[in-house]
Amino acid sequence: MKPIFVTIEGPIGIGKTSLSRELSKAFELNLLEEIVYENPFLGKFYENIAEWSFQLEMFFLCNRYKQLQDIHRDYLRQGVSVVADYNIFKNTIFARRTLDGENLPKYLRIYDILTEGLPEANLVIYLTASIDTVMKRIAMRDRDVERNMDVGYMENLIADYNEFMEAFEQRHPHIPVIKLQCDDLDFVHRPEDLQGVLKQIQPYMDALRKE
Hints:
alpha/beta; Rossmann fold; 8 helices; ATP binding; P-loop_NTPase; DCK/DGK; ATP-binding; nucleotide-binding
């Protein structure tokens, strides 16, 4: 049976890690969580985006590249299915929003080199919500580095995600995308919402496991 690689994407604070942990348990998938708060540039970035964006994005890219190399070698190539709370394509979404004209082309060239040959997701789950919902959830988890989060930056990021995912589906018609609108969906605190999400995902998992 071919291993399945599921990735979950969406803006900051939307619930990617929480849902990936539930999918890991429900569908017996190895869990991959991205390295975020170990990034030494994160707090500085939220205080001064222009000054620290390149350092921040390069740190994320290199760490995600290493994680996916390890996942490919240690799990997918061994026939073990994986769910990750990110897709590495997110790097280009953030980079296009934060990097200036001089640094962006350099970054994208490095991204293309590093991601060539990395495993591609079999299923992408895209979480989205309004700016009000996203900001409320960021405030609820009350992480130090996010307390100075700029609302305008988050509004733009949500728009960037929506635009990117529309283009992604057109460019990759062979990769199913499940879009979950999370304004009225709380799979963290409402068990019935989680069961509804798992029920929606189940047919995709069944189909992938039959391939």
